[in-house]
Specification:
By secondary structure, the protein is of the alpha+beta class. Helix content is 49%, strand content 20%. The termini are far apart.
Length: 92
């Protein structure tokens, strides 16, 4: 199954890189596409458990879904994830 979710705190290619890399590592998740222009994340998932795992991973990285709470700590996590994504994208 395929889904497109809109997330908060997605601002640049570094954020997109972090999201893509982390979701691709999850079992049952494939075909991850992240669009930083409209803050969307599209991916295929095998079952509801894989979808829930991806949802929780997005929150843990600092990118909650549009309808989720977005606390100060979650926003702070997104800055760290963004920086990590920027560093990872320059080393490729």
């Amino acid at each position: 199954m395929k889904t497109t979710q809109y997330v908060q705190n997605l601002k640049c290619g570094g954020c997109a890189n972090t999201i893509r890399k982390n979701l691709e590592l999850l079992p049952g998740i494939s075909e991850v596409i992240v669009n930083d222009e409209d803050s969307s994340v599209t991916f295929d998932f095998e079952n509801q458990e894989a979808y829930e795992t991806a949802h929780h991973k997005l929150i843990a990285l600092g990118y909650p879904l549009a309808e989720d709470a977005n606390s100060f700590m979650t926003k702070a996590k997104s800055f760290v994830s963004c920086a990590a994504g920027r560093m990872g994208s320059t080393s490729q």
